[in-house]
Description:
By secondary structure, this protein is of the alpha+beta class.
Amino acid sequence: MKTPQAFTKVFIHRDPVDMRKAINGLSEIVQAGMGNLMEPHLFVFSGKRRDVVKILYFDRGGFCLWQKRLEIEKFPWPRKSIDEVVTVTPEQLSWLLDGYDIWKMKPFTALHFEKVS
């Protein structure tokens, strides 16, 4: 598999998907409203238990399907989003696959000073 940074966008399907689906079933979900399968994008899916993630993409001559299954933990997943499809950066996908909850990560508050003493 190419690294996530080789892709321009990452689309996460927020709602659970039947993890028995393979390339054909997942590509139908993508065509129904996630984006263009032929663009250099990753399409990410998970089931109700959130212990399996499948990533679909098109690579020059055919489709590729990558799967990661966790033995104990669960993948953090976007629950509060009202959108059916959540867009993240390739870097955020890497963090998600490493177990980081990218939706709870908050940056430092930006401080603005008029002068420094």
